[in-house]
Amino acid sequence: MADAALKLKLTEAMKDAMRARAQQRLGTIRLVLAEVKRIEVDERIELDDARILVVLDKMLKQRRDAASQFSQAGRQDLVDKENAEMEVIQSFLPAPLTKDELIVLVTQAIATSGATSVRDLGKVMALLKPQVQGRADMTAVSQLAKESLPG
To answer: How far apart are CA 9 and CA 24, in angstroms?
Structure first.
């Protein structure tokens, strides 16, 4: 059986939200669990914590993008809804990495991969992604890696 402590935590949080009648939180947790279940059924596997973090990270990015678009369209009510969902999703993610921690990880990944230019960014990101998944915005990590690589 896969290590699914995070899935168990999500299920318990859903039950707590039901008892507390927290409809917004309950709805968001159900969305996350439905996405996890969809992937499990489609791929005929049981997701482990690392893969659930990928799902949470993806859902968070979707909410960020949607909030940005709603903001540009002047729909503050929908921006607030997306932000509320982001807060719930973030509560299941590990603590975010600081800028200094990211710099150290990027430097280590560049040294480990032997990257010498921006063309080697893929190698660096392949090493970084499992370390920072769910703990940092991958776009920002990629930008930091690009800036750290010569030419």
So the answer is: 18
Decide: 85 and 23 in contact? Cβ < 8 Å. Answer: no
Separation between Cα atoms, residue 97 and residue 89, nearest integer Å: 17
Q: Nearest to residue 89, comparing CAs of 13, 20, 4, 151?
A: 13
92 to each of 12, 95, 125, how far by Cα in Å? 12, 9, 24
* Contact indicator for 5, 49 with CB cutoff of 8 Å: yes
Model pTM score: 0.77
| Cβ–Cβ under 8 Å, residues 2 and 47 | yes
Mean pLDDT calculated for residue range 36-64: 92
